[in-house]
Amino acid sequence: MLALLSIKPVHTENIFSGRKTFEYRRKVFARSDVRTVLVYCTKPVGKLVGEFDIDEILQDSPSRLWKQTRTGAGISKIYFYEYFAGCEFGYALRIGNVRRFKRYIEPQKLVAEFSPPQSFMYIEESRLNSIGARTGASRCRN
What we know:
With 142 residues, the chain is of the alpha+beta class.
């Protein structure tokens, strides 16, 4: 099972360049079989641009989460605390292998009535494979 996440272009670029090794979320998946994140890069790009494997999901208070992950945050401390304002707990997805798609994919090819999710949406891996998104995908780092 895949989880599709909406990620801003600046953060998407930082993920694929290796500057960002953690993706932060206020909510995380209820399903335990999610191992890979499908990256939807928000407007102005508006396409599926790649994927990354989840090495681990950390859950903690924002202050402890920041201490554990700040070297791979790819964002400022101020931005981090603004994002988690009012949250008792937060989550950090440790980014494993990343793969940028050779050709970016229109999300409507995957989900007919696509609307970017506020947090995430589940996608069957077979649906991604059926549109050939992974053909020629390049590994960016381990």
